[in-house]
């Protein structure tokens, strides 16, 4: 978010805000000591914002004219996805894996768990992480992130991947987003494995890393363009704490990879601190 201008302290900005949202100008207004501070998400829209503010100051009605709808086509969708290829690929792989699990079932799952799983003497047997790595099955340290065991699990995770991933990839590039996926995915998976759990999966560890990264960037470098509502941060952290209690299991949420959430969160705090510090240093 970028600060633009101070508006009168007690002015009613509801019509202005409605017009800004109508024109798809991302913004927020915060109460400051000297008045109401207007922020903008994309500085390239500042001229359009200024024009609307001037009309609002003159008391002109901000007629919300219907904007011409652009024809939606496959090409436009592909162009949009092409701007965030890593985020889009994360979602596509997760969806494909979920669909294939419906076809191949456990046969696919055991090839994507963090260590191999087999049956001996009618009981489950597990390999070790060191054996897995020395045998060349390196993909296993990341692949559990793409495993989801239900529609709600899948939708919840991919919704936040799209929300946070687009910001990171648009503002910091695909290389940073790919690095975050790999480091956060591996970090979250290993954190969960260290607790003695083998059969787990999901993108939620990565989601918590993206949340922490975006939150720190928005807090330490407000002009970076990153934004996450404070209440969303409170909700996500509250949910993480809630799932760590016995209450979550007793009300039907089942087994949740809590350590993966915590591991991902720590990774995101480290990367967010590192990248925000670089921004502050280069000012």
TrEMBL record:
Species assigned in the record: marine sediment metagenome
Membrane topology: Multi-pass membrane protein
Record protein name field: Peptidase S54 rhomboid domain-containing protein
Membrane-spanning parts: 86-105, 112-133, 145-165, 177-194, 200-218, 230-254, 260-276
Family: Belongs to the peptidase S54 family.
Residue intervals of the Rhomboid protease N-terminal domain: 4-61
SUPFAM superfamilies linked to this entry: Rhomboid-like
Subcellular location: Membrane
Gene3D superfamilies named among the record's database cross-references: 3.30.70.2080, Rhomboid-like
GO cellular component: membrane
Keywords of this entry: Hydrolase, Membrane, Transmembrane, Transmembrane helix
Residue ranges annotated for the Peptidase S54 rhomboid domain, each copy included: 136-277
One example GO MF annotation: serine-type endopeptidase activity
Pfam families reported for this sequence: NRho, Rhomboid
Alphabetical list of InterPro entries matching this protein: NRho, NRho_sf, Peptidase_S54_rhomboid_dom, Rhomboid-like_sf, Rhomboid_protease_S54
